[in-house]
Amino acid sequence: MEIQEYLKYRTDLLDEAKDENGFITESNILNLILPSLSDAKLIDSEDFNECYFNHKSDNLKINGYKINESQERLQLFIVNEDSISLTRSDDDLLVSHKSYYDGVFLKASKFINKSIKKNLDEEIQDSSPVKALINFISSNRLGLDQIDVIEIFQISVTATVERRGAEPQPKSIDFEDESIVVNLNNQERGAYKKSIVIYKRLIDLNFLYNVLISQGNRELLEVDFIKLFDKGLDAIQAANEENFESYLCVLPASILEELYKRYSTRMLEKNVRSFLQFKGVNQGIRDTIRKTPEHFIAYNNGLTITAVGGSIIKNDYGTRINSLTDFQIVNGGQTTATIYFSKKDGLDISKIRVMAKINIAKNADEDKLNELISNISKFSNAQSKVTNADLRSRNEQLIKLKSVSESTMTPSGKKWYFERFKGEFNTLVRKNPRSKTKINKEYPKERRFTKEELAKYYMSWGSFPYLVKKGGDKIFRSFIEDISENEKGKKAAVINRDFYEEVIAKIILFKSLESIYGAGKNSMGQLRSAVVPYTIATLYDSTTGNKGPDAFDLSKIWMKETLEESLILMLTELMTLMNELIKKYSDSDDFGEFSKRKELWDKISASKEVKDFINTENFIKTVNKYKISKDLLKKKNLKNSKVKEIDFANIYHNVRIFARTAAYYKKLGVLFEGKLTAAQRNKIDHIIYCINNKTDIEPAYCLFEEELSYRIRVENPEIFDRINVVEDNSWNLSLDHIINVYNNAIDCNSDIESEFQKQREIAKIKGLKFYSAYDVISKGFKNGLSPRVKEVYNLSTIFKLKSEMKIS
């Protein structure tokens, strides 16, 4: 059944990858799948430079590339075009032979070799998107001298299987590392040879599905010291507690250098500090390496490493750690990176030894491990400042935003779907297979956004488009810190309707500009991911961000749910200009990579071209339509922040459960019976009792239902197909009606109680039963309370009589 789930997920992926004309493009596939690589921490952000190149006669191909933030690693992406064909049978999509994938990797390997040898220099025009990559690889100064590792990621929407048993089973395939030796020459080192390692990584359905059901958690990093270094780590056990055991060891710097080379910042993922180049603490580490390497172990605080398991051998000769699972350096990331880059710069690290404390968690779930690591980082000293930002999907501010999103409709009565954790929407669809079409119609992909996308859209309305271009954890951390309180007294952002409406306005603005810029052959160029945030930042700086009395009123975009034609025309002109300015002011011909640098934004924002543009009659006239006094905006936000928001979260979850009916949960309990404890069985019975008796389900039971559904999604998703119970949609229609009336009252700044009284009178005139439910609901709203299940049920009888009925 696991293979069938892979294939079902493939169908969902390809549906998501279709453009407005129903075509699946390799560009869309990359844009859809790279966030999963970012979630797994295989790349540091989802941003990449698109450079489609397919030379069939020479068997060369590449789709995109990126250079990691510390700039020693070139990452290449190649899409297996055969795997995205809609004509392939299920059996064709089950791949068991390594040679199938080797053939695709070969195309990228040949591209690398030809680029190094400069065989492609004259074949490719300067205007080609792949030209910058070829120049980088063939350049002594910028390319091969800079990078130590080339990673090739093959995107193949196939399932990798073992066919020896009765049924195909998932399997993983490892690909051999390669090394290429190149001759280089620069002013500092003269002529020298350098070895560059090539790693190959298959991104197939097995990988993508596992990222999905892990809710976007990183891929566990397993370090096998025997395999990498031919021997384990000699250690001394220092503690053996209930939830962890600790070991002490001394690591040669050569091991740390090799680990960083192989895994880069993946093994520092839980380390909350960024690598700060060679400043502050790092400069001290570097000076010790250069001047007194034999004193390093005495001067340095050492490393703290965590793991969740491993192979540890204990005998009469001592203790040896052969492997560690979920290897993370949570303290000492700067030490590790500095050792690596010092060796790269030619410093001798052979005498360097580093003390390491290794904590291996036992009987600890992800949350307990996160808490342990957070405390290790928090209480460490003599390091750079740590910001206590909760970056998980359980962040309180994100939970509030999710609640507001569920209860807020646009002026036209539509909803946006905020996917707080990866796979949330897919799980919603998967556990309601009969309602898949309805759910996709209610929440089309253009009205859905993830927490990572939220960070990008939100932070684009500001003065740092170079950070938005970087994407990934960096912009997400900036976003979380911006909306959260801190130790310096900064208050957390008020997450209410005003905040949410502005978020949606920013999303509409960002997505509209992406659409205007276009993609592929009909686009303005190849710099969309840079031009869009740079354009929005220019609009922000010249309105809300300047020192004048007026701001740009985003609420006008929210009300219209689109951009006015005059704004579209003006921003199209600005994007056209920005496309040229990025090229003009870049100090590199790799415009996409250089647009991640602050110096480019500083040059462009201060340029004569931008100043002239924002002083044009067209710009001023267009912006004036969206002008609002900053004082008025501040008063409005302050007033609304004091209004008690209705929390619809629990009633919303109740209604989704009630709509599935008691029969659904009875059958679910039977089909999953063997994996339920007595306590869990009792909780299902309690939910069934509440449904039958129209009684509100407490939040703890709603959370249990959500966690149980996720567990089934992971362990036995086929159960959802076997339940086969028709959903009672009248519950959803009833709550949507209540929320719609509530939203209209707020949007029109009218009295909520009066609006519900109007609905009561209309229902009474029409002779509809239970019209008095409107009285109870409006009184609850007056007291800051959301409706109860009983009131929603009473109104749902109206929709049962005629499900398409609209009360107005």
Question: What descriptive keywords fit this protein?
Answer:
globular, alpha+beta, 808 residues
Question: Helix fraction?
Answer: 40-55%
Overall pLDDT level: 89
Tell me the total number of β-strands. Answer: 21
Strand content: 15-25%
- Evaluate the radius of gyration: 29 Å
Contiguous uncertain segments of 5+ residues: 272-280, 381-386, 803-808
User: What is the makeup of the main sheet?
Assistant: 8 strands, mixed
Shape: globular
Number of domains: 5
State the distance separating the first and last CA atoms: 47 Å
How many H/I helical runs? 35
Task: Look at the helices and sheets and give the structural class.
Answer: alpha+beta
Task: Provide a descriptive summary of the structure in words.
The chain has 808 residues and is α+β, with helices and mostly antiparallel strands. The chain has five domains: 2-213, no CATH class; 222-379, no CATH class; 396-641, no CATH class; 649-728; 731-801, no CATH class. It is built from 35 helices and 21 strands. Strands 10, 11, 12, 13, 14, 15, 16 and 17 form an eight-stranded mixed beta sheet that branches. Helix 16 (451-460) crosses helix 18 (472-483), helix 19 (497-517) crosses helix 20 and helix 20 (528-541) packs across helix 22. 38% of the residues are buried. Residues 272-280, 381-386 and 803-808 have low confidence and may be disordered.
